[in-house]
């Protein structure tokens, strides 16, 4: 009884404050090799300035954790390797954008305890051909996966982010 | 007839008494099961996996101790700390970063950290500008980061020296030409040291894990698990005796 009361009291006393090895499905280097068929260009970079920062915050619900984002580009496509937290740990994802649409989305490294079903092609292939509308929302719905809601949401956010960043760099370059 | 009826009533009283006793004994655990079970069913909406237990008594009970390796580097007025691959900038956790801190140098924008084999460029406020890895051409097996008197940033592995131009993401192999002061860890102030340890211990055990361990009995070790097994069997007993008593009363 004493133990039970102590545990209950302890639960009340726990304070709210806010890492594990990643499961690597494909290394970022191998992903780039695959996309560029072995001829990987030198990475380019985009600074996240004020206006873009706001748009990104609207998509992610938080600031991007870095101030300069690297990407790889050839004549047809831009490639982004981005991290976003699903539940508690970042999911590293590779995205290929062509003509403002997602051409490929691949989960590269997964660190969460649940939601790894998003790595399967039945889920990731839904993103092919999807872009964003004027409000930076995906222009087509994506079917979720039961029990992987937060990871699915993270992937949707990253797809929106990559298309937005692609638009920025294609305008600029 | 009376004797048969008396035996029947005695049997019913016996099972009824034990039904009540078992019910009372396991009620405390059932309450804990219900509270923890409902909470665990709503772990996402209650954000249990992102909330950490910082209560010292519970952390001690889990034997969560501080690691022996706590490293501090100082640059200007700013302190950079690493404890079990968790990184801190002036006591503030750098969530986006993890790994072994091997050195810190200053540049015009802020700082450059060597963490594992990754170079991390930070602002003076501790915001990450960019992380450089082998994808950017960072040399492998890096050991140290240092700075020449003129402010050039150098990195070295066991064999070669490289001049770092992280702004342009270029690392060129060079011969040693100037005196380089390699970044060295130092003893941090006791207050910083304790604060970092406190934050480390407060980021090990999630509320979700604690609830799961209370739910399964693991919170008090294997004996707790066996106790929960026993209580589960007692619950089964309650279910059977409950049905039997209801049926006997009906008939």
Task: Describe this protein's structure.
- The complex is a heterodimer of chains A (173) and B (251).
- By secondary structure, chain A is of the alpha+beta class.
- In chain A, 34% of the residues lie in helices and 23% in strands.
- Chain A has helices spanning 2-13, 28-35, 50-60, 121-124, 149-172; strands at 23-24, 44-47, 68-73, 77-85, 90-98, 101-110.
- Chain A has a 6-stranded antiparallel beta sheet with strand order 1-6-5-4-3-2, sandwiched between helices.
- In chain A, strand 4 (77-85) and strand 5 form a beta hairpin.
- Chain A is globular, with a radius of gyration of 19 Å.
- Chain A starts with a helix and ends with a helix.
- Chain B is of the alpha+beta class.
- Chain B has 5 helices and 13 strands.
- Chain B has a 5-stranded antiparallel beta sheet, with no helix packed on it. Chain B has a 4-stranded antiparallel beta sheet with strand order 1-2-3-4, covered by helices on one side. A 4-stranded antiparallel beta sheet of chain B has the order 5-6-7-8, with no helix packed on it.
- The longest helix of chain B has 40 residues, at 2-41.
Number of helices of chain B: 5
Terminal residue distance of chain B:
16 Å
Main sheet of chain A, how many strands, which sense, barrel? 6 strands, antiparallel
Low-confidence stretches of chain B: none
Number of helices of chain A: 5
Strand content of chain A: 15-25%
Oligomeric composition of the shown chains: heterodimer
Which pair of chains has the greatest number of interface residues, and how are they split between the two chains? A-B, 34 and 38 residues
Architecture blueprint of SSEs:
The complex is a heterodimer of chains A (173) and B (251).
Chain A lengths: L1 H12 L9 E2 L3 H8 L8 E4 L2 H11 L7 E6 L3 E9 L4 E9 L2 E10 L10 H4 L24 H24 L1
Antiparallel strand pairs in A: 1-6, 2-3, 3-4, 4-5, 5-6
Helix pairs in contact in A: 3-5
Chain B lengths: L1 H40 L14 H6 L8 E6 L2 E6 L2 E4 L2 E7 L2 E6 L3 E6 L2 E6 L4 E5 L9 E7 L4 E5 L3 E5 L4 E5 L5 E3 L7 H12 L5 H10 L5 H29 L1
Antiparallel strand pairs in B: 1-2, 2-3, 3-4, 5-6, 6-7, 7-8, 9-10, 9-13, 10-11, 11-12
Helix pairs in contact in B: 1-4, 1-5
């Amino acid at each position: 009884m004493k133990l039970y009361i102590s545990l209950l009291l302890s639960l009340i006393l726990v304070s709210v404050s806010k890492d594990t090895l990643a499961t690597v499905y494909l290394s970022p280097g191998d992903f780039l090799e695959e996309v560029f068929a072995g001829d990987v260009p030198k990475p380019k970079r985009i600074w996240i300035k004020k206006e873009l920062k706001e748009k990104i915050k609207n998509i992610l619900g938080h600031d991007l954790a870095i101030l300069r984002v690297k990407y790889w580009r050839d004549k047809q496509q831009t490639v982004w390797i981005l991290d976003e937290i699903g539940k508690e740990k970042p999911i590293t994802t590779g995205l290929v954008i062509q003509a403002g649409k997602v051409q490929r989305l691949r989960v590269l490294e997964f660190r969460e305890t649940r939601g790894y079903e998003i790595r399967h092609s039945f889920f990731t292939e839904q993103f092919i051909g999807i872009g964003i509308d004027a409000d930076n929302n995906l222009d087509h719905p994506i079917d979720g996966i039961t029990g992987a809601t937060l990871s699915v949401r993270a992937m949707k956010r990253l797809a929106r982010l990559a298309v937005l960043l692609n638009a920025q760099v294609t305008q600029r370059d | 007839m009376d004797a048969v009826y008396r035996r029947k009533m005695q049997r019913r009283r016996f099972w009824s008494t034990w039904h009540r006793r078992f019910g009372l004994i396991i009620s405390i655990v059932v309450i804990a099961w219900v509270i923890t079970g409902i909470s665990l069913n709503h772990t996402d909406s209650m954000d249990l996996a992102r909330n950490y237990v910082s209560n010292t008594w519970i952390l001690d009970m889990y034997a969560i101790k501080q690691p022996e390796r706590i490293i501090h580097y100082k640059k200007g007025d700013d302190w950079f700390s690493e404890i079990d691959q968790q990184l801190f900038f002036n006591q503030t956790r750098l969530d986006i970063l993890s790994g072994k801190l091997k050195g810190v140098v200053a540049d015009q924008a802020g700082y450059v950290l060597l963490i594992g084999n990754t170079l991390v460029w930070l602002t003076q406020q501790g915001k990450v500008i960019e992380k450089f890895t082998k994808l950017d051409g960072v040399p492998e097996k890096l050991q140290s980061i240092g700075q020449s008197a003129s402010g050039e940033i150098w990195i070295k592995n066991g064999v070669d020296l490289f001049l770092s131009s992280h702004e342009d993401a270029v690392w060129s192999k060079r011969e040693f030409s100037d005196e380089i002061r390699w970044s060295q860890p130092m003893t941090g102030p006791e207050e910083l040291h304790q604060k970092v340890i406190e934050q480390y211990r407060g980021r090990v055990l999630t509320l979700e894990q604690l609830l799961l361990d209370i739910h399964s009995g693991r919170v008090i070790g294997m004996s707790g698990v066996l106790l929960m097994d026993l209580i589960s069997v007692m619950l089964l007993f309650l279910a059977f005796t409950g049905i039997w008593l209801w049926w006997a009363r009906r008939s």
